[in-house]
Design a protein that fits this description.
41% strand; elongated; 17% helix; six-stranded antiparallel β-sheet; SH3 type barrels
Length: 156
């Protein structure tokens, strides 16, 4: 089990709130909204520029600024890691390809590049909604944003 700030969770990742840090009115407001220790929380969506984050807690949806979400410490199970699109991956972290949600033509093209289920990869750089540079077996590969969304990965 790992404890991470809520702001670092990816879409479809779940965890249990361990602690809500901070002081003042914002801290009280987060507690009033149900962000209390022991509550299950799931990140549903992240806005295109990374702020705000849509979460689900106690059966309802809530949007938090990334700065506020950083004050919520969440315990995440390592074995229950959700596969997320490659576009959500953090540059520099080791990843493993879980699945490719595409037709046979694109799957074959990506397989020629080494992007097959089980392959170890790393995002070198991202350019917002533009292309991603990915390292696969020591080679750099550039993928368009739309193609990268079809490659599902898990952090190692």
């Amino acid at each position: 089990m790992a404890i991470r700030p809520l702001s670092e969770l990816r879409p479809r990742e779940k965890g249990t709130i361990v602690k809500v840090e901070g002081r003042g009115a914002i801290h009280r407001r987060m507690l009033d909204m149900g962000l209390v220790a022991g509550s299950e929380v799931e990140v549903e969506r992240v806005a295109p520029l990374g702020d705000p984050i849509a979460i689900k807690v106690k059966g309802y949806q809530l949007a938090l600024r990334r700065q506020e979400a950083a004050n919520v410490q969440v315990e995440v199970s390592d074995e229950g890691r959700a596969a997320v699109p490659l576009t959500f991956a953090t540059p520099g972290r080791p990843l493993r390809v879980f699945n490719v949600n595409a037709g046979w033509g694109l799957r074959r093209r990506l397989a020629r590049m080494g992007l097959t289920p089980g392959a170890e990869i790393r995002v070198v750089s991202t350019h917002g909604p533009g292309p991603l540079v990915v390292e696969v077996e020591g080679l750099s590969v550039t993928l368009g944003h739309g193609v990268a969304q079809k490659v599902m990965v898990r952090e190692e």
